[in-house]
Amino acid sequence: MAGSTDAVRILLAAGIVLIAGCQPPGDGLPRGDGGPAERIISLAPHITELVYAAGAGDRLVGVVAYSDYPFEARSVPRIGDSFRVDYEAVSVLQPDLVLAWQSGNPAEIVMRLRELGYRVVELEATVLDDVAADLRTIGDLAGTGSIADQRADEFSAQLETLRKEYEGVRMLRVFYQVAANPYFTITGRHAISAAIDMCGGENVFADISGLAPSITLEAIIAENPEVIIAPVVPEDESWKQGWQDWNSIDAVTRANLYSINPDVINRPGPRIIEGVAQICAALDTARNKP
After folding, report:
1. Do 15 and 47 form a contact (C-beta atoms < 8 A)?
2. Spatial contact of 48 and 61, defined as CB atoms under 8 Å apart
3. 264 near 274, Cβ under 8 Å?
4. The listed CATH number (3.30.70.920, 3.30.1700.10, 3.40.190.10, 3.40.50.1980) that belongs to domain 168-287
5. Is 15's pLDDT higher than 90?
6. Cβ(264)–Cβ(11) under 8 Å?
7. Residue 34: per-residue pLDDT
8. What is the SS3 assignment for 273?
9. C-alpha to C-alpha distance for 56 and 158, rounded to whole angstroms
10. pTM for this one?
């Protein structure tokens, strides 16, 4: 896995977020006639994915670093990253709507864009269901409501199917490893923690403060998780080697160390349903071991 500081920064830049309910649209200074947005800038990779899924990808004129999905997003001009914005580049692109990430973009960026006269709408999600709400919000703003509503309905149906499938299963204690040396994890305020819960898992660090806090190895050993999950490409098994000396942990003894594709779990867009399904499958594998 990446070094701890880089891993957490990439995790944040990629759009792994605290979810706190979608803000109502129109909470900025509008530029234009107030009709459907025709020139949109996205300030987070997961928002870029949401815009495409909502049927408004052809309206995107600017995105930030790590906006690499869908493939078409790679050709959209970059205006910085989730933490730094090139205001001159924004001016050249003349957006009539800027979609910001409430818990990720620095408040001063949002404030400055509004001072410059741009309409800025901040998006967030606290539970997995809010991905559908974000799609509908973008559809309303861009005038692509029929496409956005259909995609939102599909997402909600897939989520409900997973909920019903894993309802009532035996709970397993889970440690979600964001990074190592030092270790970072997620708390119960995180969408991924909600995914773990939905799949029949219990995030062992759900109750500590923060969003993606650092923790000690001693704390992990004391919690004795039955499963350890890490957002790592499946072909990278190196992160598992760091646990082999700690066979006092049930997850290690029972070889319950599982990788989840970071591209689909780290961003609260439509693809997160794939990441949730991978978490559910991993816990099911662990649960069904003799």
Report:
1. yes
2. no
3. yes
4. 3.40.50.1980
5. no
6. no
7. 67
8. helix
9. 22
10. 0.85
Percent of the chain with pLDDT over 70: 88
What is the C-alpha to C-alpha distance for residues 182 and 252, in angstroms, rounded to an integer?
A: 19
Domain residue ranges of the chain, discontinuous segments joined by +: 4-162, 168-287
Estimate to the nearest angstrom the gap between the alpha carbon of 39 and the chain centroid.
Answer: 24
Q: Two tokens at 122?
A: 């901040």
The span from the first CA to the last CA of the chain, in angstroms, equals 30
Q: Are 22 and 137 in contact (CB under 8 A)?
A: yes
Tell me the pLDDT tens digit for each residue of 64-84.
Answer: 999 999 999 999 999 999 899
Q: Following CA atoms 25, 27, 30, 34 in sequence, which dihedral angle do they give, to the nearest 10 degrees?
A: 30
Helix (H, G, I), strand (E, B) or coil at 146: helix
Q: Give per-residue pLDDT as tens, 188-202.
A: 988 899 999 999 999
Could you read off the pLDDT of 83-139 as tens digits, one per residue? 999 999 999 999 999 999 988 899 999 999 999 999 999 998 768 998 999 999 999
Find where tokens 């620095």 sit.
Answer: 106
Distances in Å between the Cα of 124 and the Cα atoms of 103, 104, 121, 190 are 7, 9, 10, 12
Tell which residue, 5, 48, 43, 53, has the closest CA to residue 183. 5
Considering just the CA atoms, what is the radius of gyration of the chain in Å? 20
Structural domain 4-162, CATH architecture: 3-Layer(aba) Sandwich (3.40)
Query: What's the count of helices (H) and strands (E) in the chain, helices before strands?
Result: 12, 10
* Of residues 226, 290, 235, 223, the one with CA closest to residue 261: 235
For residue 219, what pLDDT is reported?
97
Question: Is pLDDT of 29 > 70?
Answer: no
**What is the C-alpha to C-alpha distance for residues 252 and 289, in angstroms, rounded to an integer?**
14
